[in-house]
Specification:
Blueprint (H helix, E strand, L loop, with lengths): L10 H26 L6 H4 L5 H12 L6 H7 L5 H13 L4 E3 L6 E3 L1
Antiparallel strand pairs: 1-2
Helix pairs in contact: 1-3, 3-5
Amino acid sequence: LIGGGYLILTKKDYEQFIVFICNEMINTQKIMLSVLEGKEIPEEMKKKSLNRIQRIEILMMIIRKEPLSIGQIHEKASQIPRPTLKSDLNHLLKTRKIKRKGMGSGVLYYK
């Protein structure tokens, strides 16, 4: 950092950042395509942890097709740990991006 709080980036830094962002976007797209096609997510993609935005995008793609239980959602998005999945579903409910019907083990989530 210099005087006014600005960071000086070199062209190399900028190019590395662009490559990083592009790779992340490609990986996210591959995961979303696998989910939409109902395919198992490739192992090499499962090892990477997803950020909340990526997880939400995956969940919205899964839920938009039909109402599903948390178990069914977890089957389709097994790379998301179940406690994280519950937290993300609660976040989507609070922000009114999805709805829930039923009670207990019969709860279904839908768009």
